[in-house]
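Help: why these numbers?

___
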Amino acid sequence: MLCRDGYPSEKPSRSHGTQHTNFLDYNHRGLTVNAGYMEYCHDEYADQLCLYGWLLGEKPGDENVVGMIEEIVSKPAEPTPMLRVANHRARVKADYQQKLLDRVGRCWLAITSGNVFPDMTLRKMPTAARCWKTWP
């Protein structure tokens, strides 16, 4: 949504105070967010924000929740790296949230059952020794 220099300087960077070219303003209940959904530009942020929201009591699939990330961006420069702060504001689509919830469920099943190969029965599961021998 917005990129700002991380510290004052005599000459601001070219991106200071600007929006990313792919950012499209959208007024969501009085808050300016990206018209595109978070998973379209950064799926790891979408996963992270969904999990945080759910842990804070938001219902999975609610597209009215706005996720916000303050990202510190570093770019090599002399004598010190150039630091900028990038503000991300977007929502996550309901179907993406449902797929994430399914992934979390499969992960939890593998953890609690002790079977990390859900497509195999415990009887047919390879031994740890065979797994390590075939590891690249």
In short: The radius of gyration is 21 Å. The beta strands are 2-5, 25-28, 31-34, 67-75, 82-90. Confidence is low (pLDDT under 50) at residues 132-136.
